Amino acid sequence: MHIIRNSIPNLFTLFNLFFGFLSVMYSAVGDYKNAAILILIGMMLDSMDGRIARMLRVQSDFGKELDSLADIVTFGVAPAMMAYYAYFSAFGVLGMAIAGLFPLFGAYRLARFNINAVKSSLKYFTGVPITAGGGILTFLTFFHGKMPSIILPIAFFIICILMVSTVKIPSLKEVPLPKYGILITIFLGYAIYIVFKKEHHRFPYFIYVAIPLYIAFIGYQLVRTKRKNNPK
Question: Of the CATH numbers 3.90.550.10, 3.40.50.300, 3.40.140.10, 1.20.120.1760, which one belongs to the domain with range 2-229?
Answer without folding.
Answer: 1.20.120.1760
